[in-house]
Specification:
The protein is mostly helical. Among the domains are: 96-183, Orthogonal Bundle (DNA polymerase, domain 1); 199-357, hpI Integrase, Chain A, CATH 1.10.443.10. 43% of the residues lie in helices and 9% in strands. The chain contains 16 helices and 6 strands. It has a 3-stranded antiparallel sheet, with helices on one face. It has a 3-stranded antiparallel sheet with strand order 4-5-6, with no helix packed on it.
């Protein structure tokens, strides 16, 4: 036979080659580990585990294996044990910023413009958490961020709302177990009582408007129609129906306000026509100024006519109060205010002490009462 190493001819019964000394019998080591359990190699002073993560057929029809390794084991036994059952590495959860980016291209677009602005501001206050993986954040992290950025209710509420939207997406994708935003505590809401304009103040506004202060027209429009400031920003010329004295299409926030037309009285029609005629907007807006300019001009206008400063929402509170003091039926006031519930309308009515006295003084004895 031929030596398996030097290939010289040797006797058939030879166990070793007489020329090179190579053993002719091939010993096959017994295999005590099953297939697919990986292997281990020594690299320096430590061992590296090697295992097959995926077996597949490539485009040429050849069997391929995708292998992974993990080093640093002190013994071969430890490396083999790991290769046989490698720990599944948990995929890294997206950052809070990644979820905000996704949210801004989906449900965020369905919000009103004012709500989009509020949420964008709220997100800017969450910048300290933006780069962190969402599964690494705890309730204390969220609460601390909100506490450090604001001490008032509404900004904190917007921050909580934004976080809630992001956590809902993370829960749906399995990167968060629950919506942690639900556990955020908000600052106490300290709402200031809205004070409607008095009859004497209304006269000052009308006198100023009659004297050429055209901006006052916007204040009168809000007072006599119950229009919100945000609706005034969205008011366009083609939304006005002059025949029916109704404005359609600029209602905000609730379904009721969006579906119910804003009605305005005959006495305010000339004011509204003047505002429309003065507008030079190429996109047919009646109000041609941004929010900051409008609010600044609003407060300056009250100062010009000698009226104590009030929030623009006082106009809407004046509408409800005036209607109530005019003995208008509650259901009609609710419709003018475009509220779904009269309990909401009640919060806009502010009778004065004088009106209370006038009301009780007007009560008669009744036709069936004996004197």
């Amino acid at each position: 036979m031929e030596c398996r190493k030097c290939h010289k001819t040797i006797p058939d019964e030879s166990r070793f080659c007489m020329y090179c000394g190579a053993e002719q019998t091939i010993r096959i080591a017994s295999k005590n580990r099953g297939s697919g359990q990986g292997t281990a190699i020594k690299r320096g002073s430590t061992w590296t585990a090697i295992w097959t993560e995926e077996t597949y057929i490539d485009e040429d029809g050849k069997l391929k294996q995708k292998r992974k390794t993990k080093g640093g084991f002190k013994t071969k036994t430890a490396a083999l044990a790991y290769a046989a059952s490698p720990h599944q590495e948990k995929p890294q959860a997206p950052t809070l910023r990644a979820y905000w980016t996704g949210y801004k291209t989906s449900d965020f677009l369905d919000l009103s413009r004012s709500k989009q602005t509020a949420y964008t501001i709220a997100w800017s206050r969450l910048e300290d958490l933006a780069g962190k993986n969402i599964d690494e954040l705890g309730i204390s992290d969220l609460q601390s961020c909100i506490n450090s950025k604001t001490s008032t209710y509404y900004p904190a509420r917007d921050m909580k709302a934004v976080l809630s939207h992001l956590y809902k997406r993370a829960v749906a994708e399995g990167h968060a177990r629950t919506n942690l935003a639900e556990y955020i505590r908000l600052p106490k809401l300290e709402e200031k009582e809205m004070e409607p304009f008095t009859e004497a103040e209304l006269k000052k506004l009308w006198d100023a408007y009659g004297s050429g202060d055209s901006f006052i027209g916007f204040i009168l429009l809000m007072i006599y129609s119950g229009m919100m400031p945000g609706e005034l920003f969205g008011l366009k010329k083609d939304m006005i129906d002059w025949e029916t004295h109704e404005i359609n299409g600029c209602g905000l926030k609730t379904k009721k306000r969006k579906e119910t037309p804003i009605v305005f009285p005959t006495m305010i029609e000339p004011v509204l026509r003047d505002l429309v005629d003065q507008s030079k907007s190429r996109i047919k807006n009646v109000l041609c100024m941004n929010r900051d300019t409008f609010y600044a001009e609003y407060h300056d206008a009250l100062k010009r006519v000698g009226i104590p400063d009030r929030a623009p929402y006082s106009c809407r509170h004046t509408t409800a109060t005036a209607l109530a003091l005019g003995n208008i039926a509650p259901s009609v006031i609710q419709e003018v205010m475009r509220h779904a519930k009269f309990t909401t309308t009640q919060r806009y009515i502010h009778p004065t002490n004088e009106s209370a006295h006038a009301a009780v003084d007007s009560m008669g004895k009744g036709s069936n009462v004996e004197t």
